[in-house]
Amino acid sequence: MPKLSAWAKKHLSLRPSPKKCPKDALPVLPSPRRPITPVSFATAACLLFQLPWDIRSMILSIAFGGSTLHMDLARQDEAWQWRGLVCYQYDYGSQLPSPLDPWSSPHVWNDACLQYERQRKFPKDNVGIMGFLLSCKQAYTEGIDFLYSANCINIQSEILLLNLPRLIPTNRLTSMTSLQIVIRAHWIEQGNEGPFLNLGHLRPILDNIITHCHSLRSFCLAFLGASDKYGRKYEILHGPALPMLDAFYRSKRLRDMRVELPAEAFKQVNTWKSIDHPREAPAKEWNKRSLWRCLDGEEPTVQYRSHERYPHPPLRLPLQDGEDDTVESDGYWFREGDEGPVRQYVDCF
Ligand SMILES: [Zn+2]
Predict the structure, then answer these.
(1) Which member of 35, 69, 125, 234 has the lowest number of beta carbons within 10 Å of its beta carbon?
(2) pLDDT tens-place string over residues 127-145
């Protein structure tokens, strides 16, 4: 027996158990982190991987792309919980906005998939990629990249946006091409002067995206909670938020960008004076136009433009003599967003 216990001590010495994370700790990635995505494959590829890359990429895009995917980190049962689901705002038969009327695509500010999922009112759906990812190393390597690059990622969790590179591997952030985020204003108590609304978390969130999402081509940001039921408002139009977004656009040079302003700010933003480009069909109806934050000059301006090219930019205006009239404008679209809390009406009769 002593011999056996000596042998066990020598050969089966238990490693110290890893430190238990406190319950409140975020599920951050280990540092340093061992990469798990292989870079080369020693084994012979199956038939799928012998197809030319362009055909393979078409198959993977059709099979696993074209959706909006919610990625969420939230407190539940006194712990941080990851959640994800396919956005149900789009018809499952046609996951992308109609090419005939992309302006009719759903808004981000009123997307309620995650609330429905938390209340278990909506059946869980998934992209159906897990079986493929787990089938072999090469399938994982190609499939995981498609999951992030061929779908639009929707993130509403502020803690996730603030800690993006600590929670999501940087190679996945680099793969993202389309991103939707929600920014909620914070109420800050301030002594006798009452609470005020604060958007101080906007800059670090945008900085994370600038630093890590190098392939981003399409971006949508929705502001929420900029007014309360007492009529107090955050002055988005006159605060630092829009200049920050201008700088963000200029640093990323996106193919398309949209900002969903609180409804009241959207109505105040301009005088609604229409201007038309000769190459764009004149849009008479109010529902064929929207506001374009134009960053062509040194100072930003707002133009009331036809959104026939939406989500891509309208053509640059005003045109100078001899100037190429096919150049796209720099800037981003405003869409009407958060309507604020529902007003309480009192029956006087
Ligand atoms: Zn959704």
Answers:
(1) 35
(2) 788 889 998 888 898 899 9
